[in-house]
Amino acid sequence: MLETETAPTAAPALPPELQSPRAKLVYLYLTTNGDATVSEMGDSLGMKKLSLYSILKTLRKEGMVDCDGTTYALN
């Protein structure tokens, strides 16, 4: 019986314009989870909502994230 090897999963590519470690974390979270509310991100990432709103505002301004009501997702 042959044993199959699983190739390691490549990390998603981050846009080069993302400089902030926390912005990268939020971007990766949305890459992995699809969409989320600020409360969900705050609970999962251990970040304060005020910080998340600031990061998400910047990501929206850069055209990387969109908001539908209270849910954020990558463009």
From TrEMBL:
InterPro entries linked: WH-like_DNA-bd_sf (IPR036388), WH_DNA-bd_sf (IPR036390)
Stored SUPFAM superfamilies: Winged helix' DNA-binding domain
Entry-linked Gene3D superfamilies: Winged helix-like DNA-binding domain superfamily/Winged helix DNA-binding domain (1.10.10.10)
Protein name as annotated: Transcription regulator TrmB N-terminal domain-containing protein
Organism this protein belongs to: Halorubrum lacusprofundi (strain ATCC 49239 / DSM 5036 / JCM 8891 / ACAM 34)
Lineage start: Archaea, Methanobacteriati, Methanobacteriota, Stenosarchaea group, Halobacteria
